[in-house]
Design a protein that fits this description.
about 375 residues; alpha/beta; eight-stranded parallel β-sheet; 11 helices; 8 strands; globular; disordered N terminus
């Protein structure tokens, strides 16, 4: 009998030790996450409390002046329907780059909300569709930054809640619903990208995204999506399933079937941006590493008219066939994309492209379709 009691006692001790060890591991993970969140919050408050955000900086960027000669040039308002805004935390930026992204700029004393707004204004942009990543490690700091941006500049931005491609960094659907409910300044969901070269791609109809599209329905959000070339059927199913939700697509790999999408679905729009003005590259070497600022500026300066003629030849007939469903954008994302010289080049190319369209279509493409999309 004694040996039975000893055996039971030993088992209880071992079980207790195992439980204690598991609890220790759980608490360590919890403390680590809380510590990361705390540091993120502190760093963000430094930005919000410093010159980057708290005190509005004067706009000193002069209106862009075209540097090339143009027989035609559009001079009206613009709405940029594709801009990736900087993240609120350097920690988030570091994690993204370590995970395979080439660049993920964070707000700093130079790249701050006043500078960005001033930059866009200098280009004649009256509103920007800004995509904001809100990762679970920096929810409050991310939202605080967007709130300040919204309070200061209001309708100059249409804010989009953007999920990351790293599932572990995304809040669960219940939390996303809470975020969207408590922050009604969000007007869109996306960019939801399914065509990455840098990291693995997820499925357009994975359960987590089907839940997200339903949330977009619930909160009356535009869904901005980057499908892959083999997603035609999935895109059609989504548009049929969500007929009252506007979808804004873009991708250089779906040009073969985008006309069919636009023809059959009036809630589908298409943004022409970096697949026209090639911010991310134009040659095979850019499949592995995107172009640099120097490469981009040299390429555009040396080939401006040839690029313009080719893009007009390809897109003008389609835009004029579906004049109510195309929008203009830039797809700015990397740090150098927000450079003043780069912005001036994007504007000059965009205005030159718009001027080649039928006069009755120009304003629709430049800004009116974007306004209509948001108002429906």
């Amino acid at each position: 009998m004694k040996w039975v009691i000893l055996l039971i006692s030993l088992l209880l001790v071992l079980t207790a030790c195992s439980t204690i060890e598991k609890e220790k591991e759980r608490l360590t993970e919890e403390i680590t996450e809380k510590e990361i969140a705390r540091i993120t919050e502190e760093k963000t408050r430094e930005i919000i409390g410093g010159t980057s955000i708290s005190k509005q900086q004067p706009c000193t960027i002069e209106k862009t002046i075209p540097k090339l000669s143009h027989a035609k040039y559009y001079t009206g308002p613009l709405i940029d329907t594709h801009v990736h805004m900087p993240v609120s935390s350097k920690i988030v930026s570091t994690v993204a780059i370590q995970s395979g992204f080439e660049d993920m700029p964070a707000y700093n004393d130079k790249l701050n909300i006043d500078y960005l707004t001033c930059l866009f204004e200098s280009e004649g942009i009256i509103q920007t569709f800004g995509f904001h990543i809100v990762p679970n490690l920096a929810i409050e700091s991310s939202l605080s930054t967007i709130q300040v941006l919204n309070e200061r500049y209001g309708d100059k931005y249409a804010h989009f809640y953007m999920p990351t491609q790293l599932g572990s960094l995304n809040p669960d659907p219940e939390k996303v619903d809470e975020i969207l409910t408590n922050n009604p300044f969000f007007k869109g969901y996306g960019e939801v990208k399914f065509d990455f070269n840098e990291i693995g791609n997820e499925g357009i109809e994975d359960p987590q995204y089907l839940e997200a599209y339903s949330l977009a329905d619930k909160h009356n959000l535009v869904i901005m999506m980057h499908p892959a070339s083999n997603h035609k059927s999935a895109v059609m199913r989504l548009l049929n399933k969500h007929p009252n939700t506007n979808f804004l697509f873009h991708s250089g790999n779906i040009e073969g079937w985008i006309a069919e999408v636009l023809e059959n679905h009036k809630n589908a729009y298409y943004s022409l941006d970096a697949n026209v003005a090639p911010l991310f590259g134009w040659a095979s070497q850019h499949d592995l590493a995107s172009a640099t600022k120097q490469e981009f500026m040299e390429y555009m300066n040396n080939n401006f008219n040839n690029i313009l003629q080719e893009e007009v030849r390809q897109w003008k007939p389609l835009i004029e066939e579906y004049p109510n469903q195309f929008t203009w954008g830039t797809d700015r994302w990397y740090t150098w994309h927000f450079d003043e010289d780069v912005g001036a080049m994007l504007e000059e190319f965009g205005r030159s492209f718009i001027a080649e369209l039928d006069p009755e279509v120009q304003e629709k493409f430049a800004y009116k379709n974007a306004q209509k999309m948001m108002e429906e």
